[in-house]
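Side project, low priority. Logging it here so it doesn't get lost.
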Amino acid sequence: YHVNAHIPSEKYLIPTDLKLTPFKGLTVEPALYPTPIQKAMEFVEGKKLALYEGKFVIGLIARAGKDLPVGRQTLKGTLRYQACNDQVCLPPDDIPVEIVFDVITPGQPSRPVNASLFAQPPFKKQ
């Protein structure tokens, strides 16, 4: 199975789209999507479609304001996608997303996580 890219090749295809709900003290820029692969599918003759396959990462840039409380925070949202194989697509789906993170005071040492994703991110700022 695959999902369509954030900007699908055809208007009738359902894009993969991450929508987040920022809250007071947190600013979130639009999501950063990876470069899709281009692949031919049986149901579309003569064209390649922009797809994501397997595991892929959607990036975020968030900024903490001075009024963001210290401690554990949860950013909520929804991921909309449509999974397909070479012959059939499942109905579009929306799944809840929760990103849990810790806000620390300035000068407090941070604890890096997923450092490899930040070293060479698989997405670009548009």
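Brief comment: The radius of gyration is 17 Å.
Revisit when time allows.
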